[in-house]
Automatic annotation (TrEMBL):
Gene3D superfamilies: 3.30.70.100. The lineage of its organism: Bacteria, Pseudomonadati, Pseudomonadota, Alphaproteobacteria, Hyphomicrobiales. Residues 7-99 form the NIPSNAP domain. This is NIPSNAP family containing protein. Pfam families: NIPSNAP. It comes from Bosea vaviloviae. It comes from the Bacteria.
């Protein structure tokens, strides 16, 4: 399993627009076989950083989702929301391998 961590710098004056965008992507990631763990909006502290995390069974499955999302009309509409309103100023994407208590000592290849 691979988990994608997204850290967004967002326009703090457009948080409702970003939140609507995030709600769309939760369903869209799951439509392509991922498991979304949610978006995390600014609350206390910095007002312009938001996070999202979602998992796919493998990096290859994630790459397939990315490729297919560029041709999907619903994904294109979500991309267009930000193109129009520019509520995402920048973002960084990182990948992690989750560790669970019930892994029973199974070592996964890096």
């Amino acid at each position: 399993m691979i988990t994608c961590y997204l850290r967004y710098i967002v326009d703090p004056y457009q948080l409702p627009a970003f939140e609507a965008y995030g709600k769309l992507w939760i369903r869209l990631v799951e439509k392509f076989g991922g498991k979304h763990h949610g978006y995390f909006m600014p609350s206390e502290g910095v007002s312009n950083v938001a996070l999202a995390m979602f998992s796919f069974p493998s990096l290859a499955a994630y790459e397939d989702y990315r490729k297919r999302s560029f041709d999907d009309p619903e994904c294109q509409a979500a991309f267009a929301m930000n193109e129009k309103d520019r509520f995402i100023l920048s973002y960084e994407r990182s990948f992690f391998r989750p560790v669970f208590e019930d892994d029973q000592g199974v070592r996964r290849a890096p």
